[in-house]
Structures are given as C-alpha cells and as structure tokens.
Amino acid sequence: MDRPELPLLQLHAFAVLAEELHFGRAAERLGIAQPPLSQQIRRLEEKVGHPLFDRGPARVALTPAGRELLPAARRALADLDAGLRAARRVGAGELGVLRIGFAASLALTVLPGLLRTYRQRFPDVELDVREMTSSPQLTALREGAIDIGLLREPPDEETEFGFRTVLREPFVAVLPTGHALAAARTVPLGALADEPFVLLPRAVGPQLHDRIVGLCADAGFAPRITGRAVEWQTLCALVQAGLGVTLAPASIRRIRLDGVAYRRIEPAHARTRVAVAWRRDDRSPLVANLLSVVGEER
C-alpha cells in the first residue's frame, strides 16, 4: 500500500474549516491556536497544488478545488472513524462470528439459557450454532472449525483444550411402559442386568458411552448391547419398540413418547458431566466473553 499523500490531521483541519469558514472558530473547535491551523491548511494546499480557500478580509470561502476535495475528505474521515469503532468493538468481542458446537441433548438443558444470556450481553455477535456429538466437537475444535464446544463427559487426557463444568446431570432409566420395573419410582441399576441395552455408538461419544458402561459395571454387570443410535430420540424410539432399555441424562425426559417411561436410578449420585470446551491457545475475545457468561457447575 502506497503512503498517503495527505496527512489525517490536515484533512481533519480542512474539513472543520470548510464547515466553519472562519479560522478562529475552526481553531477553537480543533483545540489549537490559529497560526498552527493556518500552517496545516497551507501545507495541504501545497500537497494539492492549488488553493483550497479564498481568504478575504471579511470572509473565507471554498475554492472549486476545495469544494471538490471536501466530500472525499469527509468520506475518508468518516470511514476511518467507523473503522476505528468497529476495530475496538471486535477487539472487545462485541462484533464477529462465534461458532458453537453442541450435543443435541443439551438443547434440552443448558444451551438455550446460555445462548439467551450471551445474546443479551453481545447482541451484535453472530452465532453460528452447529449440532454435533462430542467426538466430532473435539475434532472441530482442534481443526479450528468451531470456537466453543458444549459436550458431555469431556476427556481427562486432553491438555490442548480447556473445560469448564456447567452441569452435573442425573441419569434415568428409559423403559417401555409395559416393563415390570416401570411401575417403580426408582430402579436399582442392578435390576437391569438381564435386559438388552440400546446405546450411543462409542465412536461419537466415547466418554459418555464408557460412563454408562462403567455404571453398569459398578452395579455388577456388563450391558448386553443389542442396538445403537446417534440421537437420543432414536434411542427412546427403540425402547418404545421394545428393543431394549437404556440409561440417559435426566433431561431426555422432555422427549415425550407414548409407551416410554423414565425412572430415577439407584445409585442416585450417578451423574453425567456437561462442560464448555475451548482451545487453550485461543485468545479470541469472543471466546473469552462466552466463558464470562458461563456459570460454573450447577
């Protein structure tokens, strides 16, 4: 980019004098004495090669060259002012695009409140919200395809990411309504030992899959997995069809399907962890502002 011929201070002085058409008032507006203003205008006229003002004993008026330059000077000053304001807002995380990945089940819990609070604080940030399971979220974060992840059971061994727990949610047993255990208010996990299970594929959420299998192991059995599906609604439909039972986060109870019952389990302390994830080396103010509105563990 070539060096600009006209210094910004001289353009500003020219635009103010063109509005006031009086050196004294223009100098007062600019906060300088009249002689320095006159010097700036003379230097600008030297750059242009023509007088910009007619200076008479009783009045100051723009010359044809001055009238031609004025709109361009105003545009340049206005564009620079707009650019500075936009740059400051981007630097403060008040403008831009924030890309967020989220696990589908979190649309039933923390996601709506988080997005609502963020939009109230930063209404001019565009949110690019993408539904994806936990493993693809971590891959997308690593590759820079998303800026924030909202997932279940974040891995302990990932040092390149930061995780902030926002919820620890109980598990429920998902049963056909005709199942004998559906008559109980609480289901001991060991009572499901002989039942066929339908679960998420491990590849899309290994930590959550292993958490569920681990709870079964703690209850003394390994689940016999007879079906898999990526979406919780599909898993609930498989339960409805009588293909098995499953364990799910308690928020899945909001999926209303005839023929499906949701029951608390024992041990009652069994929880699934929900966390916000981000790249530790990401210095984006958009990410920092999102983290500022994320509540700690509830």
UniProtKB/TrEMBL annotation:
Q: Which InterPro entries match?
A: LysR_HTH_N (IPR000847), LysR_subst-bd (IPR005119), WH-like_DNA-bd_sf (IPR036388), WH_DNA-bd_sf (IPR036390)
Q: Name one GO molecular function term.
A: DNA binding
* Cellular component terms per the entry's GO annotation: protein-DNA complex
State one Pfam family annotation.
LysR_substrate
Residue ranges annotated for the HTH lysR-type domain, each copy included: 6-63
Q: Does the keyword Iron apply?
A: no
Q: Which UniProt keywords apply?
A: DNA-binding, Transcription, Transcription regulation
Iron found in the keyword field = no
Instruction: Give the UniProt family note.
Output: Belongs to the LysR transcriptional regulatory family.
Question: Can you name this protein?
Answer: DNA-binding transcriptional regulator, LysR family
The species this protein was found in? Streptacidiphilus jiangxiensis
